[in-house]
Design a protein that fits this description.
Structural class: alpha+beta
Bound molecules: zinc ion
Shape: elongated
Number of strands: 8
Largest sheet: 5 strands, mixed, barrel
Number of helices: 8
């Protein structure tokens, strides 16, 4: 048996048999793990609130070669992220980040990915609800960066020529980012990004913030991120939390235009 002690975040949990729960953890040193928490249902004292969704702390995992399911020895919570439950916008954003991690993280150490998920949940837990969407977008793009599939912003994805930051540019998902005017002319399709959209992507990928409150801009960014994930992580399975997040933004927009009409 191997014992691993590492930082971890609870991303998903469900009941297992009469007395236990299985939790899905993103860990710093062992990647994404499925872990059996024995007795978690029958004795609240055993793990307390440590297995609540998005709780983060230090875990001790016991794993055996050839077994996919680890056993939870202990969990010591450092951050409970309870603020995520205080607003729908925060919670929906956290669900998107968790869904992307559950889908695309691997069962091996990935400190960069762990740190992005942890920092994004921290930011969301205390975010003004109006900022939750752009903080989620920032986290999503930085997760892609950690997974090695980030887009080009200021150099052409095809020929590497610099692209004027103050001009609109074509963004091609298959090419992997922004294109210069010459390559855009040769490429089929692609979306035209205004300079502000590229400025947002640049800021997010550099780890900074870029506030976006205009509902239509948020919508365009949600679509761009979704399309990039589909293109570069090569996975056609549905992303229900992401879909709900996009629908929710649409609903908010419709409600706002009704109010102003
Ligand atoms: Zn080019």
């Amino acid at each position: 048996m191997t014992v691993v002690v590492t930082d971890a975040i609870v991303l998903h949990a469900f009941d297992y048999l009469e007395s236990s729960r299985i939790i899905r953890l993103l860990t710093r040193d062992a990647g994404l793990r499925s872990v059996l928490a024995r007795g978690a249902r029958t004795s609240r004292k055993r793990f307390g609130s440590a297995l609540d969704l998005y709780a983060q702390g230090t875990v001790e995992l016991h794993s055996r070669p050839g077994r996919e399911l680890d056993t939870l020895g202990s969990i010591d919570i450092a951050r409970s992220h309870t603020g995520l439950g205080a607003s729908l916008e925060r919670f929906t954003g956290a669900a998107v980040i968790a869904e992307l991690a559950l889908r695309f993280a691997r069962a091996e150490a990935d400190e960069a990915l762990f740190d992005v998920v942890s920092q994004t949940l921290d930011a969301l837990a205390s975010a003004p609800p109006a900022r939750a969407r752009d903080l989620t977008l920032a986290g999503g793009w930085r997760m892609l960066l950690a997974l090695g599939v980030s887009p080009t912003i200021d150099a052409c994805a095809e020929c590497h020529a610099p692209i004027d930051a103050s001009a609109p540019a074509t963004f091609s998902h298959p090419a992997g980012g922004a294109l210069c005017a010459r390559c855009a002319h040769l490429a089929r399709g692609g979306r035209t990004l205004p300079p502000s959209a590229r400025a947002a992507l640049r800021a997010w990928l550099e780890g900074g913030e870029f506030a976006i409150t205009d509902a239509q801009e948020v919508r365009a960014h949600q679509r761009l991120l979704r399309e990039f994930v589909r293109e570069h992580l090569g996975d056609d399975r549905p992303l229900p939390a992401y879909d709900a997040w996009e629908r929710d933004a649409l609903g908010t927009r419709a409600a706002r235009s009704e109010q102003t009409a």
